[in-house]
Design brief:
Layout: H1 2-5, H2 9-15, H3 21-35, H4 50-60, H5 67-72, H6 77-82, H7 85-90, H8 97-112, H9 117-125, H10 139-148, H11 165-170, H12 176-182, H13 190-204, H14 221-232, E1 254-256, E2 263-265
Antiparallel strand pairs: 1-2
Length: 271
């Protein structure tokens, strides 16, 4: 045991026949914590094994597609905390810049809470049913937000998007085009995109709205936006609704029902 803790990097590589650089880093970081326990910055890191990173953390940031590479490289909490954008591209073969950003922002969020999952869980529980503290939202919580703004049919597309709360709040490049691309919404759907842009603005401004996950809302936000879009583009005209229909003057060949809601042909006029 004492021999292992005194090993150098070369000893580790030779004695344990390690070639993978992240495997070597993982062991080195663990040994450093044993040698200098008082110098440990984040004590909770030791509790986060690679199983948690692969099966819990990656889905929480919407990057399920990288489970294989994280599992192969045995990325645990200590290694995760050490990753740079260069490491993500070189050692994990993740070349998508937006996904690199998603990972780095996800790591920064964990560091902000000292990798204390209990503390982070409590924070997330406080905004589970209300639109606040967006920074801590998981991809799953973002999907619930999409459902609340009448985009339910697109919510499941976030699983591989890399979009989570820290991206929405801290990525300067995040906007309606990024979200629309992730949801595969074409540029031709201008009304829908305008609706999404308005909702993103509300979210980023800190505006909160109670979620209606337990019951269906009476009128969805997108439907209201769509209605307003048609109303605003129509000139003011007299009320031609069926409720405004009046009984015909004598000589007309149709008559109104008593409730004024329908018009029927009157055969007696032609008798």
């Amino acid at each position: 045991s004492s021999g292992i803790t005194q090993s150098t990097g070369n000893d580790i590589q030779t004695g344990f026949q390690m070639v993978n650089p992240l495997h070597k880093r993982k062991l080195r970081l663990a040994l450093e914590d044993v040698r200098q326990p008082d110098a440990v910055t984040y004590p909770c890191l030791a509790k986060l094994d690679h199983w948690w990173v692969v099966n819990e953390w990656l889905p929480s940031i919407g990057l399920n597609q990288y489970k294989g590479t994280f599992r192969e490289n045995l990325v645990d909490g200590r290694v995760l905390n050490s990753l740079t954008r260069k490491d993500i591209e070189r050692h994990l073969n993740i070349v998508d810049r937006s996904h690199q950003t998603s990972i780095t922002l996800g790591i920064e969020l964990l560091a902000k809470y000292s990798y204390d999952l209990e503390k982070l869980t409590v924070k997330r529980a406080g905004c589970q049913h209300i639109d606040r503290d967006v920074e801590v939202w998981t991809t799953g919580r973002c999907a619930e937000w999409l459902i609340s703004i009448d985009l339910k049919e697109h919510a499941n597309k976030l699983s591989y998007s890399g979009i989570h709360g820290a991206v929405i709040t801290h990525d300067k490049e995040f906007n309606v085009d990024v979200l629309a691309a992730a949801l595969l919404i074409p540029v031709q759907r201008k009304v829908l995109r305008r609706h999404m842009e308005q909702e993103i603005a509300v979210l980023k401004s800190g505006g909160s709205r109670r979620q209606t996950t337990m019951s269906k809302p009476k009128a969805g936000k997108f439907k209201e936006s769509l209605s307003r879009a048609f109303t605003n583009n129509r000139a003011e005209t007299p009320d031609h609704s069926l409720k405004a229909f009046k009984a015909p003057e004598p000589g007309n060949h149709c008559k109104a029902e008593p409730d004024g809601l329908s018009i029927k042909f009157d055969p007696e006029i032609y008798a």
